[in-house]
Specification:
Elements lengths: L2 H29 L1 H7 L6 H27 L4 H24 L4 H23 L3
Helix pairs in contact: 1-3, 1-5, 4-5
Length: 130
C-alpha cells in the first residue's frame, strides 16, 4: 500500500467512524430521547423529547448524506467539511440555548459537547491529506 493509499484509508476510516457514531446518536435521539435527556440530569419533558427527535432525524439525514458521499468519492472533503460546519452551528445554538434557558442548560451543554466532538472529528477527516 502506498503512502497516499494509507492516508486515504485512514481518512475514510475516520469518516466512516464519525458517520456511524452520528447515525447511532441519531437513532438513539429518535428512539429514546427521554433516556438521553434524563442522563443529563434534566427532566425529559414532552417538548424536549420532540425537539430531540427532530435533531435525531437531522443526524440521520446528515449521516446518510455523508455515507453516500463516501461511497461515491471516498475521502472527499466537501461533505465532511460541510457536516463539520453544520455541527458547529448546532453546537453554537445549543450554547445560546444553555445561556437563555436555565431549565435546559445541562441537556443543551451536553448536546453542544457531542456536536463539538462530531465537528472536530469531521473536520479532522476533511482536512487529512486527500
Amino acid at each position: 500500500m502506498s503512502l497516499r493509499q494509507g492516508h486515504l484509508a485512514k481518512k475514510t476510516t475516520v469518516a466512516w467512524l464519525v458517520t456511524l457514531g452520528r447515525a447511532g446518536y441519531g437513532v438513539t435521539l429518535v428512539a429514546v430521547p427521554g433516556l438521553l435527556i434524563g442522563l443529563t440530569g434534566q427532566r425529559p419533558a414532552r417538548r424536549a423529547c420532540g425537539v430531540a427527535r427532530v435533531l435525531g432525524v437531522r443526524h440521520l439525514v446528515q449521516a446518510g448524506v455523508t455515507a453516500a458521499s463516501q461511497v461515491a468519492d471516498p475521502g472527499s472533503p466537501v461533505v465532511l467539511a460541510g457536516g463539520a460546519a453544520v455541527d458547529l452551528l448546532h453546537a453554537t445554538s445549543m450554547m445560546a440555548l444553555a445561556v437563555a434557558d436555565p431549565h435546559t442548560r445541562h441537556a443543551a451543554l451536553t448536546d453542544a459537547s457531542v456536536e463539538t466532538t462530531l465537528a472536530v472529528a469531521g473536520g479532522w477527516a476533511a482536512t487529512t491529506a486527500h
